[in-house]
Amino acid sequence: MSSPPPVTTPVRITIGVAVPLSGPDQAAGESLVRGVRLAAGEAFAVTVADDSKPGAAESLAQAAEVMGVVAHVGRAAAAHQAGDWVRLQVPTVIAAPGAPGALPRVIPAAGALASCAARLLGDGPYVLRTDGSADAVEAAAVLTEALGGRSKGQSVVAAADAANEAAKLQRGTEEVIFLGDPRLGGNLLRALRAFSTVPFRALSAEDPAFLAAAGSAAEGARVTGVTRPARSDAFRAAFHQKYGADPDGQATDGYDAARILIAAWGAANARDPNVTRSAVGAALPGVETTGSAGPMHLDATGLLQPVVCEQYVVQGGVFVPDVSGSLGDEVVLDAAGASLPAVVRKKRRPEGEWLGLPRGDAASDPAPAPGSNEAVRTPGLRRP
């Protein structure tokens, strides 16, 4: 009597995630994984490797079921390991700021964020201070050009010189705009408040490190974010239902990066059901889908468009969307740097419930089911 043929279980198409699972960035890594899992739904599996330890890229690359990777929350990991993903030929979307330009990424370049934030500024005048990093210098150059005569100069603040710089700034009347490390921005603000109540704003500083460094001096300060704000009511509701909490920046980045990968997989699957990693990688440039901030696409350089920036004010030790300006708290820019009409004004009720104006909010489509053309709900179409 012959034995029955062995039963084989189909391998689920998998999204790999490379984030820190230990150390100071563990919480950020775990938050990003939650965003990826929400995007994956029931259709895709998720496997995670600890990028704070050697061999993370290799372990994900060796797993044949991994069709692509969402990688990194920290600048250092992205800078050190970006070459590994290229060498291993794994389709990868970077979720960390300051990533090298060879790979798709969901966080805009520093200059793009500065250009977006400039729309949220008033008549000034302003003085700019940076930490001297390449990103901050790039952002300051873009901001200076955008401000024109409203900018009254810029200089670099050394980490050990925040108190001396604050003593100089308190003699002026211009609003101070800081660009760079949120910790240094918080230290500068804390030192400045010992002398003066001159207005202070920090770009790309929606970061707990800014609040920790500034302490009580942070109250009333305005900052802009680095990550795309969660403008989609459907995304926020789905995240809260799954995890019992609101999504933070890392969760939205993970969600958007996974949605981009899934859309690329859907585009490749529509052409040939035998999807390969190379086919997914080829589908990434120009891919379109919906994410935490609504419709989005990768441009030809791998940057996520449109750029969405949000402004916050510190109230009671937390970041609250700032709707005090004429533009509200958000600006949306297209790839050419022009403002789109979807400027959003939002307020929060005391209990934290979001009140959103109608803005064509797109619900999150279910992830496409591998092997089912009918279930490929995310379009994944390339721009012409």
Please provide a written account of the structure:
The structure is a single chain. The protein is α/β, with parallel strands linked by helices and 384 residues long. The protein has two domains: 14-107 and 232-304, Response regulator (Rossmann fold, 3-Layer(aba) Sandwich); 109-226 and 308-366, Rossmann fold (3-Layer(aba) Sandwich). The chain has helices at residues 26-40, 56-61, 75-88, 110-118, 134-147, 162-169, 182-193, 208-214, 233-243, 249-271, 277-283, and strands at 14-19, 45-50, 66-71, 92-94, 126-130, 151-156, 175-179, 200-203, 222-224, 288-291, 294-298, 304-305, 307-315, 318-321, 330-333, 346-348, 354-356. Strands 5, 6, 7, 8, 9, 13, 14 and 15 form an eight-stranded mixed sheet that branches. Strands 2-1-3-4 form a four-stranded parallel sheet, sandwiched between helices. The chain has a three-stranded antiparallel sheet with strand order 10-11-12, covered by helices on one side. Helix 1 packs parallel to helix 10, helix 6 crosses helix 7 and helix 7 packs parallel to helix 8. The model is unreliable at 5-10, 325-329 and 334-384 (pLDDT under 50).
